[in-house]
Amino acid sequence: MDELAAARRAMGHGSVPAGDAYTIEVRRRYDAQVDDVWDALTNPDRLRRWLKPVTGDLRLGGKFELDGDEHGEILRCEPPRLLKVSWLYGPDARPGTSEVEVRLAPGPDGDTEFELIHAAVVEEPLFPTYGPGAGGVGWDLALLALARMLTGGDETVEEREFVRRSAAAWGEAHLAAGGEPEHVAAAVAATSRFYAPDPT
Length: 200
Description:
It comes from Amycolatopsis suaedae. By secondary structure, the protein is α+β, with helices and mostly antiparallel strands. The chain has one domain: START domain (Alpha-D-Glucose-1,6-Bisphosphate, Chain A, domain 4, 2-Layer Sandwich). The protein has six helices and nine strands; from the N terminus they run E-E-H-H-E-E-E-E-E-E-E-H-H-H-H. The protein has helices at residues 34-42, 44-50, 126-130, 133-151, 159-176, 181-195, and strands spanning 8-16, 19-30, 54-56, 63-66, 70-78, 82-86, 88-89, 98-106, 112-120. It is globular and about 45 Å long.
């Protein structure tokens, strides 16, 4: 399956406690039951296989840290349908500036409809430089790993090509949301270089 083509992407506006935010949205279907997908999102042993190792107080109101710079608080947890967390980067991140919400719904064939919305107050120069691909490409890479874990697939994907196509797909979402073509093209190129720098 073409994992990039399996997802629908959109860019919009929303709000977080700190104020107005950009949103990136990914919707797709997983060929797995909703309880299995929920477990993949919340079970630390499985989460580390497709995202990163996680530590902390993994319950409503608890704080978590991923192996890296991401950390946050569990804001809503309604098994097996909805998980919402604050999603902050680095020790100096301002609380209330970034949130991720995942919604699951059972599909008609024992599958799962998956929706991820990441709302963030994005400061200069991040959004003007990279557009929605700044976070979107990272989520595409993570959701590719989630798909592989859920289905047991091990098909190889050339990462540079995947990143290039992901950045282009987020560029299309940016254009659909009213982005200026020249700005979008520059953001797609910058995002591709950031995630997959030229090896030469």
